[in-house]
Amino acid sequence: MKDVLIKKGMKILVELSKGLEEPDTAEMYREVYFHHDELCEKFMEKTGIVVTGFDEENIDRWFEVIEERTAILKQGDYEDAKEELMEIAAFLGNQLVKYLGGRWFHYLSENHESCGVERCKTLNPGLNCLSVVVGGYTQNGMNWVKKSILNRYQERKI
């Protein structure tokens, strides 16, 4: 019995020690920042998603599509899902820019790279779209992502 526990236990410990792959990488942030328009367009063409404004009705429709797509993505590897997660982040970010007057920003330091949308006309003017989308996909669920976008809608300054 001891041998079985050691053998199986070591396998489990090795797997646990690997940890999770870094979910959102510098390369992903770079891709979203420099190619957000193309990624957004690709997502809209792929899904047929239509944007007619920035309100609860539109946001509900977007997230019906996003939740459907992420359910499909979860059936495969995370590596295979990265491209579409970047497309979703670009799509959501572009809506914040278009409807809330935000702008894309790129943050680069010696130890970290990221991007997002800032200067939105809301009480909370910024959002790291890729981090939120990846966090929703890997941990918190897409309803959590939807709440982040709905909060921006509800907090907008008219």
Describe the structure.
The protein is mainly alpha-helical. It has one domain: Four Helix Bundle (Hemerythrin (Met), subunit A). The chain is built from six helices and two strands, in the order ααααββαα. α2 packs across α4, α3 packs antiparallel against α6 and α5 packs antiparallel against α6. About 4% of the residues have low confidence.
Strand order of the largest sheet: 1-2
Poorly predicted runs of 5 or more residues: 13-19
Q: Give the CA-CA distance, first to last residue.
A: 69 Å
Mean pLDDT: 89
Percentage of residues in helical conformation:
55-70%
| Main β sheet profile | 2 strands, antiparallel
Shape: globular
Total domain units: 1
Query: DSSP strand (E) fraction?
Result: 5-15%
What is the CATH class? Answer: Mainly Alpha
Oligomer: single chain
Task: Summarize this entry quickly.
Helix content is 66%, strand content 8%.
Task: Break the fold down into its secondary structure elements and pairings.
Blueprint: H1 2-18, H2 26-47, H3 56-73, H4 78-100, E1 103-108, E2 113-118, H5 129-140, H6 142-154
Antiparallel strand pairs: 1-2
Helix pairs in contact: 2-4, 3-6, 4-5, 5-6
